[in-house]
From TrEMBL:
One of its GO terms (cellular component) is postsynapse. This is P2X purinoceptor. Belongs to the P2X receptor family. It is found in: Cell membrane; Membrane. Keywords: Cell membrane, Disulfide bond, Glycoprotein, Ion channel, Ion transport, Ligand-gated ion channel, Membrane, Receptor, Transmembrane, Transmembrane helix, Transport. GO terms for biological process: calcium ion transmembrane transport; response to ATP. It is a multi-pass membrane protein. InterPro entries: P2RX7_C (IPR046815), P2X7_purinoceptor (IPR003050), P2X_extracellular_dom_sf (IPR027309), P2X_purnocptor (IPR001429), P2X_receptor (IPR059116), P2X_RECEPTOR_CS (IPR053792). Receptor for ATP that acts as a ligand-gated ion channel.
Length: 471
């Protein structure tokens, strides 16, 4: 194939009239050579640019069938692969230490999957192809080497596993230029004329791809993994809460932990009330309902009673107000009046009075029984005038004696009941006094005009407000 000057086939846009239309040294993508700068006749009517090219030009021909090197199916290849895991400073190769020269001369893939010598026909067959068919147009076969290593001393295992697959398009009728082919040329000079021989080779290319992973037991990694898992599932918080709630810690520690851990969120719509029944030892936290009576509302939580003896004890120890008087009613004691009407359905002590407000429908008991307002202790701690006057004097030593209006005594009686039955109420809650107790206090210390403010809870009510009678 010598280099000669040939006519450029006159396609669209390649016709010329004179040499100026043919740029010397110019070329385009579909040209077979470089323009010489001459415009020559192609036929009677057309002219075209002359190019310097190899003659004859390359022609499209189908590859020969069968393939020229069909015997290459029996060729063998030795694959040497080295790997390294930097995290463990571990180096390995696929030619294992026990593989000597005699082993490599006799090993076969059929009986030994670790043999690093591969027959080309077997590689193509394990990829699901036929060597005789694939060798015609060529193709690409991937040899995959996977390392899955356990580097523990007692269970150490790090061996390669080989697999094969075809990587190019198999169906030749679905794509242009299927298979694998490439061109190369050999150049020489004959009688002063440069010639070349162009070869188009069809063949099978083998790509070796290596991937893998390695692991080794580590106590540090195990602890970090367990810690992150527990933290992710919030198990640590649950375990600590459970330990503090058990007998491992005292009840005071558990209560203090609960108060510090749980933050009270104030409800912008409803007031949280705390209710104490005489036949229960706990305090219930409920929300006011505009439809249901306070007696029937399901509590949002139940807390233990926290005793507060500072205020009550200080009052009891005042001179002249001793509790050791055989619990006899004072001279100014009035008998407990009987209810004027039948008790409402929500009443359990038969001494409550009906009310139009659901938040005032509360009895002193959860189940039927005697009313707390009829007990001698209620008379001593809540209604006794000398005790109430002493409490008022204890709060303000320079205050004037209680007047005949009974307002200060009535509000002080409410405060005494709260200190007695609620102790230290839960924060951001409003103690609710039963209807029977309110009626008993009002009967003992009535308002001159017969008007009372009623139960008007707010979202945040302090103990001082309760003590001042803001109910």
């Amino acid at each position: 194939m010598p280099r000669v000057f040939i006519f450029q086939v006159p396609l669209k846009g390649r016709l010329c009239r004179n040499d100026k239309d043919c740029e010397k040294g110019g070329w385009d993508q579909q040209s077979h050579g470089i323009k010489t700068g001459s415009c020559v006749k192609f036929d009677v009517l057309r002219k075209t640019c002359e190019v310097s090219a190899w003659c004859p030009v390359e022609t499209k021909r189908s590859p020969p069938r069968p393939a020229l090197l069909a015997a290459a199916e029996n060729f063998t290849v030795l694959i040497k692969n080295n790997i390294r895991f930097p995290a463990f400073n571990y180096i390995r190769r696929n030619i294992l230490p026990n593989m000597n020269d005699a082993y490599l001369r006799s090993c076969q893939r059929g009986g030994d999957p670790l043999c690093p010598i591969f027959r080309l026909g077997d590689v193509v067959r394990e990829a699901g192809e036929k060597f005789s068919e694939m060798a015609v147009e060529g193709g690409v076969i991937g040899i995959l080497i996977k390392w899955d290593c356990n580097l523990d001393r007692l269970m150490q295992r790090c061996l390669p596993r080989y697999s094969f697959r075809r990587l190019d398009e198999k169906e030749s009728n679905r794509t242009l230029y299927p298979g694998l082919n490439f061109r190369y040329a050999k150049y020489n000079t004959v009688n002063g004329v440069e010639e070349r021989t162009l070869y188009k080779a069809f063949g099978i290319r083998f790509d070796v791809m290596v991937f893998g992973q390695a692991g080794k037991f580590s106590f540090i990694v195990l602890i970090i993994y367990i810690g992150s898992t527990l933290s992710y599932y919030a198990m640590t918080t649950l375990i600590i809460d459970w330990l503090i709630g058990t007998r491992c810690y005292s009840a005071d520690v558990a209560q203090n932990f609960s108060e510090k851990k749980v933050e009270s969120v104030q409800d912008k719509q409803k007031c949280v009330l705390c209710v104490s029944y005489v036949d229960e030892n706990n305090i219930r936290l409920v929300k006011i309902s505009q439809k249901n009576s306070l007696q029937d509302i399901t509590p949002i939580s139940v807390q233990s009673h926290k005793e507060d003896t500072r205020h009550l004890g200080a009052c009891v120890l005042l001179p002249g107000v001793s509790m050791d008087q055989d619990h006899q009613p004072p001279l100014d004691h009035k008998s407990d009046p009987a209810p004027k009407s039948s008790p409402p359905a929500w009443c359990k002590c038969a001494r409550c009075t009906p009310s139009s407000l659901p938040q005032e429908e509360l009895c002193c008991r959860r189940s039927e029984g005697a009313c707390i307002a009829s007990s001698p202790l209620f008379q001593q701690l809540v209604l006794r005038r000398s005790l109430l006057e002493a409490v008022l004097l204890y709060r303000d030593p320079l205050s004037a004696p209680a007047g005949p209006g009974h307002t200060a005594l009535r509000h002080c009686a409410y405060s005494q009941y709260i200190s007695w039955r609620f102790g230290v109420p839960p924060s951001n809650s409003h103690p609710a006094i039963p209807s029977c107790c309110i009626g008993r206090v009002r009967g003992e210390y009535p308002s001159p005009d017969g008007k009372y403010s009623g139960f008007r809870p707010t979202r945040m009510v302090s103990m001082q407000a309760c003590a001042n009678g803001e109910l």
